[in-house]
Structure formats: structure tokens, C-alpha cells
């Protein structure tokens, strides 16, 4: 953050990303990544329609005779909600819907899930994580001073969902992840939630109990056993269609009575607190920059509209912020003094703790070699 402040002239990413670079025209590396990489993986056109049709045929053929042809994680957010409707109503798939409850569901998210399941007549399963373990792990991450406080939720989500899929002999996982709304996310703002070694190292130093039932997945199970032994495939259908966030929400609201919960990922009360308060206050990072920049590059928001939105606080009001902070502290059993100590403690990188960083590098190198040949 010692460098001179600059903002991209095409999107609104700025030097709050310490690794950002700009070309001679003032356009950032994230925009160039979108142009060179994302546009070759995102098909909101006829080509995408054809590719998706072929994928659906493969799913149905491979899963013929089985109770479910795919599995879908539901959070109550717009991406997974819209994907569920598309999967059933437009693609004719028969997914098993699974929700991983990490203890942070907003009431709106829960109502949205109920509406989706009822509207689509989905078979639905909820996996509830032991709250005492989840709470202790969440507090451990706060005390560790690392940047990605969503790891306890995200790791458990994928670990539980993938295990439940293989336990039920389901090879295809539908994901709401998409380039239209999330093509930009600086590596300096996050850390890989699937680094189990890192999670265990942080918890061993700052946790108070033992993680007995918390869902975990190792590096080799996640990156090799599931895709190569169990032949599991993660499909992202929204990347094969002209997915527009505003239009998707309007359709969900009209057909299901779905409720808008605010900003991206705010269906989780902890993620709302983390993205709307913790990151800006503690690290000087406002993830709305990445979210809005993604929409700009996808043609769903103008740069001027994004700059106007950035003038608004991440929370709707000061009263709402105070209420959420009180709720979070009470649920985590943290005192105000304890929380102040956390907010003022030195920052630590995830890699200050034991990690699988070397394995991730080897994996990425192997992936590049395979693509080359």
C-alpha cells in the first residue's frame, strides 16, 4: 500500500490490490486477464448453448437409471437459486439439492431455499455442521489475523458436498460459480479454502477444542481422488449462457417470491459482516470493487454506476452495522474487548502457518503441461 494510488480506467480496481499493474493506457492486469483468459472460457452465446447441450446429454447418458443425475449446493443466493431453476426447468435435470448449514444463514436465505425447493419439488438434504466446532474454528481464524475469514465456511461446504455426492454415487456437481459476476478477485485478497494443512495449522495454534465432526477434505482427495478416481466433474452451466444478475433476480422474484438479500454473498450473516465491515476496516479492502468490476467487464454495469455505488457504505445503515456486530460477537462468544484486540492485532499471512503452497504450485505446473500437450 506504499505505492501511489491509482484506479483502472476501464474497471474500478485500484491499488487496494497490492499486486495490481497497469499498462500505458491505465488499464489494469485484471482487465487483460478477462480479455485473454475469461473470454475463452465464457460463452454467453450460441456456442455456449451448443456446449451446454452436449454437457447435459453426457450427464443424462452417464447417469441413466440413477435416482439423481447431479448434485447442487443451495445457499439461498442468486447464483445457486437461478441455477436450480435453469437446471430443472430448462435443462431437464434431476438434481439432489444440498444445503450446508454452517450456522450463519440469514432468515432471507433460509426462506429463499424453502421457496426454491417447493417451487421445483426438489429432493433436499441439509448438512448441519457442529456449531461448537464451527464457532471455535471461526474464532481461531479471527485470532490468527489472516485475510480469508470465510475459509471455515467454504472448506466445510465443498468437503461435505463432494463427500455426499460420492456417497450417493453422483458424478456431476452443478456450481453457480460464473464469470459474468465474479471474473475478478485478486489473489492478494483471498487464500485457497481447500488448504486443509493450513486450516489445521491455524486451528492447532488458536483453537481450544478438537475438530471431530467438522467436514474436511485433503489436497489429494479434492484434486485427485474425486476427479480421477471417482471421475467427478464440476459443471458451471451459467458460463454457457447470457447470465445477467439483475434479470435473474427479477425472474426469481416474479416466479418464486424470492427475496433479495443485498450484496453478493450476503446470504451468510458472517460473510456480510466479513465483506462489509471486517475487510474494509482491518485490511482496507472493499470486495465490492471486484464484484462491480466483474459486472463492468461483463457489460452488466457501467463504470459510472459502479463508482456511484462505491460511494454508498457496504452496510445499509449504522444501526444495521451495530446490530450485526453485536450478533456476531454474541454468537462467537467474543467480548468487545476481545474483538478490539483481534481488530488491532498484527496481520499474518496464511503462509506464515504450515500450508500446501508447494503442492498447489506443483499442481498448477502439471495442469499447464497437460494443456500444452
Strand arrangement in the largest pleated sheet: 3-2-1-4-5
Residues in β-strands, percent: 5-15%
- Cα(first) to Cα(last) distance is 40 Å
Helix/strand/pairing class, anyone? alpha/beta
- Rounded to the nearest angstrom, the radius of gyration is 21 Å
Biggest sheet statistics:
5 strands, parallel
* H/E series: HHEHEHEHHEHHHEHHHHHHH
Total strand segments: 5
Count of DSSP-assigned helices = 16
The coarse overall form would be globular
Classify the helix fraction into a percent range. Answer: 40-55%
Mean pLDDT: 93
Question: What are the low-pLDDT stretches, counting only 5+ consecutive residues below 50?
Answer: none
Task: Give an overview in words.
The protein has 373 residues and is an alpha/beta fold. Helix content is 52%, strand content 6%. It is built from 16 helices and five strands. Strands 3-2-1-4-5 form a five-stranded parallel beta sheet, with helices on both faces. The protein starts with 28 loop residues before the first helix and ends with a helix. The model has no long low-confidence stretch (mean pLDDT 93).
Amino acid at each position: 500500500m506504499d505505492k501511489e494510488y491509482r484506479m483502472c480506467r476501464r474497471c474500478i480496481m485500484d491499488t487496494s490490490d497490492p499486486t495490481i499493474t497497469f499498462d500505458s493506457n491505465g488499464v489494469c492486469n485484471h482487465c487483460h486477464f478477462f480479455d485473454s483468459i475469461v473470454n475463452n472460457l465464457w460463452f454467453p452465446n450460441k456456442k455456449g448453448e451448443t456446449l451446454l447441450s452436449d454437457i447435459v446429454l453426457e450427464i443424462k447418458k452417464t447417469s441413466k437409471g440413477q435416482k439423481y443425475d447431479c448434485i447442487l449446493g443451495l445457499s439461498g443466493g442468486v447464483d445457486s437459486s437461478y441455477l436450480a431453476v435453469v437446471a430443472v426447468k430448462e435443462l431437464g435435470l434431476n438434481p439432489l439439492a444440498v444445503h450446508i448449514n454452517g450456522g450463519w444463514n440469514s432468515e432471507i436465505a433460509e426462506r429463499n431455499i424453502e421457496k426454491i425447493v417447493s417451487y421445483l419439488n426438489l429432493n433436499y438434504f441439509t448438512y448441519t455442521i457442529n456449531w461448537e466446532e464451527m464457532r471455535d474454528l471461526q474464532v481461531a481464524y479471527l485470532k490468527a489475523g489472516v485475510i480469508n475469514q470465510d475459509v471455515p465456511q467454504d472448506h466445510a461446504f465443498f468437503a461435505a458436498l463432494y463427500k455426499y455426492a460420492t456417497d450417493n454415487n453422483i458424478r456431476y456437481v452443478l456450481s453457480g460459480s460464473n464469470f459474468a459476476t465474479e471474473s475478478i478477485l485478486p489473489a492478494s485478497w483471498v487464500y485457497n479454502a481447500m488448504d486443509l494443512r493450513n486450516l489445521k495449522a491455524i486451528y492447532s495454534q488458536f483453537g481450544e477444542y478438537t475438530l471431530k465432526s467438522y467436514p474436511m477434505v485433503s489436497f489429494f482427495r479434492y484434486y485427485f481422488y474425486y476427479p480421477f478416481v471417482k471421475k467427478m466433474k464440476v459443471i458451471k452451466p451459467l458460463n454457457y449462457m447470457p447470465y445477467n444478475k439483475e434479470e435473474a433476480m427479477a425472474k426469481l422474484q416474479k416466479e418464486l417470491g424470492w427475496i433479495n438479500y443485498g450484496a453478493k454473498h450476503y446470504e451468510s450473516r458472517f460473510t456480510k459482516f466479513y465483506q462489509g465491515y471486517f475487510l474494509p476496516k482491518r485490511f482496507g479492502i472493499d470486495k465490492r470493487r471486484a464484484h462491480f468490476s466483474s459486472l463492468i467487464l461483463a457489460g452488466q454495469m457501467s463504470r459510472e454506476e459502479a463508482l456511484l455505488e462505491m460511494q454508498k457504505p457496504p452496510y445499509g445503515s449504522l444501526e444495521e452495522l451495530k446490530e450485526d456486530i453485536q450478533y456476531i460477537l454474541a454468537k462467537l462468544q467474543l467480548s468487545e474487548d476481545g474483538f478490539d484486540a483481534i481488530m488491532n492485532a498484527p496481520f499474518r499471512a496464511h503462509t506464515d502457518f504450515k500450508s500446501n503452497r508447494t503442492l498447489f504450485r506443483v499442481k498448477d505446473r502439471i495442469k499447464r503441461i497437460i494443456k500444452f500437450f
